[in-house]
Design goal:
There is one protein chain. By secondary structure, the chain is α/β, with parallel strands linked by helices. The protein has helices at about 15-25, 45-55, 65, 110-130, 170-185, 210-220, 235-250, 265, 270-280, 295-300, 305-310, 315-325, 335-340, 350-360, 365-370, and strands at about 5-10, 35-40, 75, 95-100, 135-140, 150-155, 190-195, 195, 225, 230, 235, 255-260, 270, 290, 330-335. The chain has a domain at about 5-195: 3-Layer(aba) Sandwich (Rossmann fold), CATH 3.40.50.720. The chain is built from 15 helices and 15 strands. Strand 4 (about 95-100), helix 4 (about 110-130) and strand 5 (about 135-140) form a beta-alpha-beta unit. Helix 4 packs parallel to helix 5 (about 170-185). The longest helix is centred in the first third of the chain and has 17 residues, at about 110-130. The radius of gyration is 20 Å and the shape is globular. It binds NADP nicotinamide-adenine-dinucleotide phosphate.
Protein backbone atom coordinates (compact mmCIF):
# COMPACT_ATOMS: atom_id res chain seq x y z
CA UNK A 1 0.00 0.00 0.00
CA UNK A 2 1.07 3.61 -0.56
CA UNK A 3 2.60 5.52 2.33
CA UNK A 4 2.09 9.12 3.45
CA UNK A 5 5.36 9.86 1.69
CA UNK A 6 3.95 8.84 -1.66
CA UNK A 7 3.43 11.46 -4.33
CA UNK A 8 1.30 10.60 -7.36
CA UNK A 9 1.86 12.28 -10.71
CA UNK A 10 -1.31 12.05 -12.80
CA UNK A 11 -1.54 12.98 -16.48
CA UNK A 12 -5.02 13.32 -18.01
CA UNK A 13 -6.96 14.73 -15.02
CA UNK A 14 -9.18 16.86 -17.27
CA UNK A 15 -10.40 13.71 -19.05
CA UNK A 16 -13.01 11.07 -18.23
CA UNK A 17 -10.75 8.50 -16.54
CA UNK A 18 -8.35 11.04 -15.02
CA UNK A 19 -11.26 13.08 -13.61
CA UNK A 20 -12.70 9.92 -12.05
CA UNK A 21 -9.32 9.09 -10.48
CA UNK A 22 -8.96 12.54 -8.98
CA UNK A 23 -12.54 12.58 -7.73
CA UNK A 24 -11.90 9.23 -6.02
CA UNK A 25 -8.70 10.61 -4.48
CA UNK A 26 -10.58 13.57 -3.04
CA UNK A 27 -13.53 11.60 -1.73
CA UNK A 28 -11.92 8.47 -0.34
CA UNK A 29 -10.50 9.12 3.13
CA UNK A 30 -8.12 6.20 2.86
CA UNK A 31 -6.35 8.07 0.07
CA UNK A 32 -6.23 11.47 1.76
CA UNK A 33 -2.53 11.14 2.68
CA UNK A 34 -1.46 10.79 -0.95
CA UNK A 35 0.12 13.93 -2.39
CA UNK A 36 -0.79 14.65 -5.98
CA UNK A 37 0.70 16.52 -8.93
CA UNK A 38 -1.35 16.97 -12.08
CA UNK A 39 0.11 17.40 -15.55
CA UNK A 40 -2.37 19.71 -17.28
CA UNK A 41 -2.29 21.46 -20.63
CA UNK A 42 -2.56 25.14 -19.73
CA UNK A 43 -0.64 28.39 -20.18
CA UNK A 44 -0.63 29.16 -16.46
CA UNK A 45 -1.14 27.12 -13.28
CA UNK A 46 -4.35 29.06 -12.54
CA UNK A 47 -5.75 28.23 -15.96
CA UNK A 48 -4.77 24.58 -15.35
CA UNK A 49 -6.47 24.68 -11.95
CA UNK A 50 -9.69 26.04 -13.46
CA UNK A 51 -9.66 23.24 -16.03
CA UNK A 52 -9.19 20.58 -13.33
CA UNK A 53 -11.94 22.07 -11.11
CA UNK A 54 -14.32 22.11 -14.10
CA UNK A 55 -13.56 18.45 -14.74
CA UNK A 56 -14.16 17.55 -11.07
CA UNK A 57 -17.57 19.28 -11.01
CA UNK A 58 -18.77 16.74 -13.62
CA UNK A 59 -18.25 14.11 -10.91
CA UNK A 60 -20.28 16.11 -8.37
CA UNK A 61 -17.31 16.49 -6.02
CA UNK A 62 -18.16 19.03 -3.28
CA UNK A 63 -16.66 22.52 -3.65
CA UNK A 64 -14.86 22.01 -0.35
CA UNK A 65 -13.12 18.94 -1.72
CA UNK A 66 -12.48 20.53 -5.13
CA UNK A 67 -10.68 23.42 -3.44
CA UNK A 68 -8.21 21.00 -1.89
CA UNK A 69 -6.61 20.99 -5.35
CA UNK A 70 -4.59 24.17 -5.64
CA UNK A 71 -2.11 25.78 -8.04
CA UNK A 72 0.70 24.00 -6.17
CA UNK A 73 -0.72 20.73 -7.52
CA UNK A 74 -0.63 21.85 -11.14
CA UNK A 75 2.28 21.15 -13.48
CA UNK A 76 1.65 22.92 -16.78
CA UNK A 77 2.54 20.78 -19.77
CA UNK A 78 1.60 17.96 -22.06
CA UNK A 79 2.87 14.63 -23.35
CA UNK A 80 4.44 16.28 -26.38
CA UNK A 81 6.10 19.08 -24.39
CA UNK A 82 7.81 17.20 -21.57
CA UNK A 83 10.97 19.32 -21.87
CA UNK A 84 8.96 22.29 -20.54
CA UNK A 85 8.43 20.67 -17.11
CA UNK A 86 11.02 17.88 -16.85
CA UNK A 87 13.18 20.03 -14.54
CA UNK A 88 10.33 21.08 -12.24
CA UNK A 89 11.78 20.39 -8.74
CA UNK A 90 8.40 19.12 -7.48
CA UNK A 91 8.82 16.04 -9.67
CA UNK A 92 11.78 14.89 -7.58
CA UNK A 93 9.34 13.67 -4.89
CA UNK A 94 7.19 11.65 -7.28
CA UNK A 95 6.97 7.95 -6.40
CA UNK A 96 3.89 6.86 -8.39
CA UNK A 97 2.69 7.82 -11.87
CA UNK A 98 -0.55 7.19 -13.75
CA UNK A 99 -0.65 8.29 -17.35
CA UNK A 100 -4.19 8.34 -18.67
CA UNK A 101 -3.63 11.22 -21.08
CA UNK A 102 -4.10 10.64 -24.77
CA UNK A 103 -6.17 11.26 -27.87
CA UNK A 104 -9.17 8.95 -27.66
CA UNK A 105 -11.07 10.14 -30.71
CA UNK A 106 -12.34 7.43 -33.05
CA UNK A 107 -12.25 10.00 -35.84
CA UNK A 108 -9.21 10.77 -38.03
CA UNK A 109 -7.48 12.99 -35.44
CA UNK A 110 -4.23 14.45 -36.88
CA UNK A 111 -2.38 14.21 -33.53
CA UNK A 112 -3.30 10.65 -32.58
CA UNK A 113 0.14 9.18 -33.39
CA UNK A 114 2.31 12.08 -32.18
CA UNK A 115 0.41 12.13 -28.88
CA UNK A 116 -0.37 8.47 -28.18
CA UNK A 117 2.94 7.06 -29.40
CA UNK A 118 5.65 9.76 -29.47
CA UNK A 119 4.20 11.76 -26.56
CA UNK A 120 3.56 8.69 -24.43
CA UNK A 121 7.13 7.51 -24.98
CA UNK A 122 8.61 10.94 -24.23
CA UNK A 123 6.61 11.16 -21.00
CA UNK A 124 7.58 7.61 -19.93
CA UNK A 125 11.28 8.25 -20.64
CA UNK A 126 11.09 11.43 -18.56
CA UNK A 127 9.38 9.88 -15.52
CA UNK A 128 11.54 6.74 -15.69
CA UNK A 129 14.48 8.96 -14.67
CA UNK A 130 12.80 10.28 -11.52
CA UNK A 131 14.90 9.28 -8.51
CA UNK A 132 12.12 7.81 -6.33
CA UNK A 133 9.84 6.27 -8.96
CA UNK A 134 8.25 3.04 -7.68
CA UNK A 135 5.58 2.46 -10.30
CA UNK A 136 4.45 3.91 -13.63
CA UNK A 137 1.01 2.88 -14.80
CA UNK A 138 0.40 3.46 -18.46
CA UNK A 139 -3.29 3.29 -19.31
CA UNK A 140 -3.75 1.51 -22.60
CA UNK A 141 -6.91 -0.11 -23.95
CA UNK A 142 -8.13 -3.70 -24.18
CA UNK A 143 -9.15 -2.85 -27.75
CA UNK A 144 -5.54 -3.21 -28.95
CA UNK A 145 -6.86 -6.69 -29.84
CA UNK A 146 -7.82 -5.55 -33.35
CA UNK A 147 -10.75 -6.70 -35.44
CA UNK A 148 -10.69 -10.48 -34.90
CA UNK A 149 -10.00 -11.32 -31.25
CA UNK A 150 -10.95 -14.67 -29.72
CA UNK A 151 -14.03 -14.97 -27.49
CA UNK A 152 -11.97 -14.47 -24.32
CA UNK A 153 -8.82 -12.38 -24.51
CA UNK A 154 -5.90 -12.87 -22.12
CA UNK A 155 -3.37 -10.11 -21.51
CA UNK A 156 -0.37 -11.85 -23.08
CA UNK A 157 -2.09 -12.40 -26.45
CA UNK A 158 -1.46 -8.78 -27.49
CA UNK A 159 -0.02 -6.52 -28.83
CA UNK A 160 0.51 -8.34 -32.12
CA UNK A 161 2.17 -6.95 -35.24
CA UNK A 162 0.28 -6.38 -38.49
CA UNK A 163 -3.15 -6.63 -36.93
CA UNK A 164 -6.14 -5.01 -38.63
CA UNK A 165 -7.62 -2.27 -36.43
CA UNK A 166 -11.01 -0.58 -36.81
CA UNK A 167 -9.54 2.84 -35.93
CA UNK A 168 -6.08 4.50 -35.84
CA UNK A 169 -6.59 5.20 -32.11
CA UNK A 170 -6.34 1.53 -31.07
CA UNK A 171 -3.43 0.96 -33.46
CA UNK A 172 -1.56 3.86 -31.83
CA UNK A 173 -2.19 2.40 -28.36
CA UNK A 174 -0.82 -0.99 -29.47
CA UNK A 175 2.29 0.63 -30.91
CA UNK A 176 2.84 2.66 -27.72
CA UNK A 177 2.73 -0.54 -25.65
CA UNK A 178 5.22 -2.27 -27.93
CA UNK A 179 7.68 0.62 -27.78
CA UNK A 180 7.31 1.14 -24.03
CA UNK A 181 8.31 -2.48 -23.43
CA UNK A 182 11.15 -2.27 -25.93
CA UNK A 183 12.63 1.08 -24.86
CA UNK A 184 12.08 0.93 -21.10
CA UNK A 185 12.96 -2.61 -19.99
CA UNK A 186 14.15 -1.45 -16.55
CA UNK A 187 11.29 0.90 -15.73
CA UNK A 188 8.76 -0.23 -13.04
CA UNK A 189 6.13 -0.10 -15.77
CA UNK A 190 2.66 -1.62 -15.45
CA UNK A 191 0.35 -1.49 -18.44
CA UNK A 192 -3.33 -1.46 -17.60
CA UNK A 193 -5.92 -2.04 -20.31
CA UNK A 194 -9.48 -1.04 -19.47
CA UNK A 195 -12.23 -2.46 -21.65
CA UNK A 196 -15.06 -0.24 -22.98
CA UNK A 197 -15.80 2.34 -20.28
CA UNK A 198 -19.41 3.56 -20.19
CA UNK A 199 -20.79 5.99 -17.60
CA UNK A 200 -20.42 5.97 -13.83
CA UNK A 201 -22.18 3.44 -11.61
CA UNK A 202 -23.87 6.19 -9.53
CA UNK A 203 -23.76 9.31 -11.72
CA UNK A 204 -24.58 7.60 -15.02
CA UNK A 205 -23.54 9.79 -17.94
CA UNK A 206 -23.22 13.05 -15.99
CA UNK A 207 -19.41 12.96 -16.20
CA UNK A 208 -19.45 11.78 -19.84
CA UNK A 209 -21.85 10.18 -22.31
CA UNK A 210 -18.96 8.57 -24.19
CA UNK A 211 -20.12 5.39 -26.01
CA UNK A 212 -23.50 5.28 -24.21
CA UNK A 213 -25.01 7.01 -27.25
CA UNK A 214 -24.16 3.89 -29.32
CA UNK A 215 -26.33 1.74 -27.03
CA UNK A 216 -29.09 4.36 -27.23
CA UNK A 217 -28.76 4.33 -31.01
CA UNK A 218 -29.15 0.57 -31.16
CA UNK A 219 -32.14 0.75 -28.79
CA UNK A 220 -33.80 3.48 -30.86
CA UNK A 221 -33.32 1.47 -34.07
CA UNK A 222 -34.56 -1.68 -32.26
CA UNK A 223 -31.62 -3.47 -33.88
CA UNK A 224 -28.13 -4.69 -33.15
CA UNK A 225 -25.58 -6.05 -35.62
CA UNK A 226 -24.90 -9.13 -33.46
CA UNK A 227 -26.95 -12.03 -32.10
CA UNK A 228 -28.93 -11.04 -28.99
CA UNK A 229 -26.98 -13.66 -27.03
CA UNK A 230 -23.68 -12.06 -28.04
CA UNK A 231 -21.91 -10.29 -25.14
CA UNK A 232 -20.12 -7.00 -24.74
CA UNK A 233 -17.54 -6.16 -22.06
CA UNK A 234 -18.43 -2.82 -20.44
CA UNK A 235 -17.37 -1.30 -17.10
CA UNK A 236 -18.14 2.00 -15.31
CA UNK A 237 -15.51 4.72 -14.94
CA UNK A 238 -15.55 4.72 -11.11
CA UNK A 239 -14.59 1.03 -11.13
CA UNK A 240 -11.67 1.79 -13.46
CA UNK A 241 -10.54 4.71 -11.27
CA UNK A 242 -10.64 2.63 -8.07
CA UNK A 243 -8.85 -0.25 -9.76
CA UNK A 244 -6.08 2.01 -11.11
CA UNK A 245 -5.55 3.55 -7.68
CA UNK A 246 -5.40 0.10 -6.15
CA UNK A 247 -2.87 -1.14 -8.71
CA UNK A 248 -0.64 1.93 -8.50
CA UNK A 249 -0.47 1.74 -4.69
CA UNK A 250 -0.29 -2.04 -4.22
CA UNK A 251 2.89 -3.13 -2.48
CA UNK A 252 3.43 -6.09 -4.74
CA UNK A 253 1.93 -6.93 -8.10
CA UNK A 254 2.30 -10.33 -9.73
CA UNK A 255 2.10 -9.12 -13.33
CA UNK A 256 3.12 -6.17 -15.47
CA UNK A 257 0.00 -6.10 -17.68
CA UNK A 258 -3.63 -6.14 -16.49
CA UNK A 259 -7.06 -6.06 -18.07
CA UNK A 260 -9.76 -4.09 -16.31
CA UNK A 261 -12.88 -5.67 -17.68
CA UNK A 262 -16.10 -7.38 -16.81
CA UNK A 263 -14.72 -10.69 -18.06
CA UNK A 264 -16.81 -13.46 -19.57
CA UNK A 265 -19.09 -13.90 -16.55
CA UNK A 266 -19.96 -10.26 -15.84
CA UNK A 267 -20.30 -9.15 -19.47
CA UNK A 268 -23.89 -8.57 -20.61
CA UNK A 269 -25.65 -9.88 -23.69
CA UNK A 270 -27.41 -7.47 -26.05
CA UNK A 271 -30.70 -9.12 -25.06
CA UNK A 272 -30.00 -8.26 -21.39
CA UNK A 273 -29.05 -4.72 -22.36
CA UNK A 274 -32.33 -4.33 -24.26
CA UNK A 275 -34.23 -5.53 -21.17
CA UNK A 276 -32.32 -3.04 -18.99
CA UNK A 277 -33.33 -0.22 -21.36
CA UNK A 278 -36.95 -1.39 -21.09
CA UNK A 279 -36.75 -1.30 -17.28
CA UNK A 280 -35.13 2.14 -17.31
CA UNK A 281 -37.79 3.50 -19.70
CA UNK A 282 -40.58 1.65 -17.89
CA UNK A 283 -41.71 0.21 -21.22
CA UNK A 284 -42.92 -3.35 -21.77
CA UNK A 285 -40.08 -5.84 -22.40
CA UNK A 286 -39.39 -5.41 -26.11
CA UNK A 287 -39.77 -8.51 -28.24
CA UNK A 288 -39.28 -6.31 -31.33
CA UNK A 289 -35.52 -5.92 -30.65
CA UNK A 290 -33.63 -8.02 -33.18
CA UNK A 291 -30.37 -8.77 -34.90
CA UNK A 292 -30.01 -6.97 -38.24
CA UNK A 293 -27.40 -6.12 -40.83
CA UNK A 294 -25.91 -2.68 -41.18
CA UNK A 295 -27.83 -2.26 -44.45
CA UNK A 296 -31.17 -2.93 -42.76
CA UNK A 297 -30.34 -0.31 -40.14
CA UNK A 298 -29.24 2.13 -42.86
CA UNK A 299 -32.64 1.78 -44.56
CA UNK A 300 -34.12 3.65 -41.60
CA UNK A 301 -32.19 6.76 -42.66
CA UNK A 302 -35.37 8.76 -43.51
CA UNK A 303 -36.34 8.44 -39.82
CA UNK A 304 -32.96 9.43 -38.32
CA UNK A 305 -34.11 12.90 -37.14
CA UNK A 306 -36.97 11.44 -35.12
CA UNK A 307 -34.80 8.59 -33.81
CA UNK A 308 -31.53 10.42 -33.02
CA UNK A 309 -32.46 14.11 -32.99
CA UNK A 310 -31.37 16.60 -35.65
CA UNK A 311 -28.17 15.21 -37.08
CA UNK A 312 -25.82 14.78 -39.99
CA UNK A 313 -27.22 11.55 -41.41
CA UNK A 314 -24.01 10.53 -43.17
CA UNK A 315 -22.06 11.00 -39.97
CA UNK A 316 -24.58 8.91 -38.03
CA UNK A 317 -24.36 6.14 -40.63
CA UNK A 318 -20.57 6.12 -40.29
CA UNK A 319 -20.82 6.01 -36.49
CA UNK A 320 -23.36 3.19 -36.75
CA UNK A 321 -21.12 1.14 -39.01
CA UNK A 322 -18.05 1.64 -36.80
CA UNK A 323 -19.75 0.85 -33.50
CA UNK A 324 -21.58 -2.03 -35.16
CA UNK A 325 -18.14 -3.54 -35.85
CA UNK A 326 -17.16 -3.30 -32.17
CA UNK A 327 -20.57 -4.69 -31.13
CA UNK A 328 -20.06 -7.74 -33.33
CA UNK A 329 -16.79 -8.79 -31.66
CA UNK A 330 -18.48 -10.92 -28.94
CA UNK A 331 -15.30 -10.68 -26.87
CA UNK A 332 -14.62 -10.47 -23.14
CA UNK A 333 -11.36 -9.52 -21.47
CA UNK A 334 -10.16 -11.93 -18.84
CA UNK A 335 -9.91 -10.01 -15.55
CA UNK A 336 -8.57 -12.79 -13.32
CA UNK A 337 -5.14 -11.16 -12.91
CA UNK A 338 -6.68 -7.97 -11.56
CA UNK A 339 -9.04 -9.91 -9.29
CA UNK A 340 -6.18 -12.06 -7.93
CA UNK A 341 -4.23 -8.90 -7.12
CA UNK A 342 -7.10 -7.44 -5.10
CA UNK A 343 -9.23 -5.50 -7.59
CA UNK A 344 -12.93 -6.17 -6.93
CA UNK A 345 -15.12 -7.39 -9.80
CA UNK A 346 -17.02 -4.57 -11.51
CA UNK A 347 -20.81 -4.18 -11.45
CA UNK A 348 -22.62 -5.40 -14.56
CA UNK A 349 -23.55 -2.78 -17.15
CA UNK A 350 -27.23 -3.70 -16.78
CA UNK A 351 -27.04 -2.94 -13.02
CA UNK A 352 -26.37 0.76 -13.62
CA UNK A 353 -27.64 1.31 -17.18
CA UNK A 354 -30.74 3.10 -15.76
CA UNK A 355 -28.44 5.79 -14.30
CA UNK A 356 -26.89 6.29 -17.74
CA UNK A 357 -30.33 6.44 -19.36
CA UNK A 358 -31.81 8.87 -16.84
CA UNK A 359 -28.83 11.22 -17.03
CA UNK A 360 -28.96 11.27 -20.86
CA UNK A 361 -32.60 12.34 -21.23
CA UNK A 362 -31.77 15.96 -22.04
CA UNK A 363 -29.24 15.25 -24.76
CA UNK A 364 -30.02 13.84 -28.20
CA UNK A 365 -28.26 10.70 -29.34
CA UNK A 366 -26.50 12.62 -32.12
CA UNK A 367 -25.22 15.33 -29.75
CA UNK A 368 -24.02 12.71 -27.26
CA UNK A 369 -22.13 10.93 -30.07
CA UNK A 370 -20.00 14.02 -30.80
CA UNK A 371 -17.81 13.45 -27.74
CA UNK A 372 -16.23 10.38 -29.31
CA UNK A 373 -15.36 12.05 -32.60
CA UNK A 374 -14.02 15.44 -31.41
N1 LIG B 1 -12.95 5.91 -22.19
C1 LIG B 1 -12.77 4.64 -22.52
O1 LIG B 1 -13.72 3.92 -22.89
C2 LIG B 1 -11.41 4.02 -22.42
C3 LIG B 1 -11.33 2.62 -22.51
C4 LIG B 1 -10.07 2.03 -22.44
C5 LIG B 1 -8.94 2.80 -22.32
N2 LIG B 1 -9.06 4.16 -22.25
C6 LIG B 1 -7.80 4.91 -22.15
O2 LIG B 1 -7.88 5.76 -21.03
C7 LIG B 1 -7.17 6.96 -21.28
C8 LIG B 1 -8.06 8.12 -20.93
O3 LIG B 1 -9.24 8.05 -21.70
P1 LIG B 1 -10.44 9.06 -21.43
O4 LIG B 1 -11.67 8.38 -21.88
O5 LIG B 1 -10.33 9.63 -20.07
O6 LIG B 1 -10.10 10.19 -22.51
P2 LIG B 1 -10.54 11.71 -22.55
O7 LIG B 1 -11.75 11.97 -21.74
O8 LIG B 1 -10.57 12.08 -23.99
O9 LIG B 1 -9.33 12.47 -21.84
C9 LIG B 1 -8.09 12.52 -22.42
C10 LIG B 1 -7.15 13.26 -21.50
O10 LIG B 1 -5.87 13.27 -22.12
C11 LIG B 1 -5.41 14.61 -22.15
N3 LIG B 1 -4.51 14.83 -23.28
C12 LIG B 1 -4.76 14.69 -24.59
N4 LIG B 1 -3.67 14.99 -25.31
C13 LIG B 1 -2.71 15.33 -24.41
C14 LIG B 1 -1.36 15.75 -24.52
N5 LIG B 1 -0.74 15.89 -25.69
N6 LIG B 1 -0.70 16.01 -23.38
C15 LIG B 1 -1.27 15.88 -22.17
N7 LIG B 1 -2.55 15.53 -22.01
C16 LIG B 1 -3.26 15.24 -23.12
C17 LIG B 1 -6.65 15.46 -22.23
O11 LIG B 1 -6.30 16.77 -21.85
P3 LIG B 1 -7.04 18.09 -22.43
O12 LIG B 1 -8.22 18.29 -21.54
O13 LIG B 1 -6.00 19.13 -22.32
O14 LIG B 1 -7.43 17.79 -23.86
C18 LIG B 1 -7.52 14.71 -21.23
O15 LIG B 1 -7.17 15.06 -19.93
C19 LIG B 1 -6.74 6.92 -22.74
O16 LIG B 1 -5.40 6.63 -22.81
C20 LIG B 1 -7.55 5.81 -23.35
O17 LIG B 1 -6.83 5.13 -24.33
C21 LIG B 1 -10.26 4.79 -22.29
Amino acid sequence: MSTTKDCLLLAGATGFLGGAILSELLQNEELSGLKVLLVVRAKTPSEGLERVWKSLRRFEVSEENIERIRVENIVCGGLTTTESFADDPRLQKVTLVINCAGITSFGPHPEVWTTNVDGTLAFAHMVSKLPHLRRLIHVSTAMICGSKPPHVVQEDMYPQPKLRHFVPYTESKAEAERRLREELPNCPLVIVRPTIVVGHSKLGCKPSGSIFWAFRMSDALRMVTAPLTSRIDVVPVDYVAQALLHLVRAKKLHHTTYHLGAGDEQSCSFGEINDAFSRAMKRKKGSDFRQATFHEAAELQPHFYELFGKCNKRFMLGAMRLYGSFASLNTAFDNSRAVEDGVPTPPRFTDYLHECYNSSKDITISDQAMIDFA
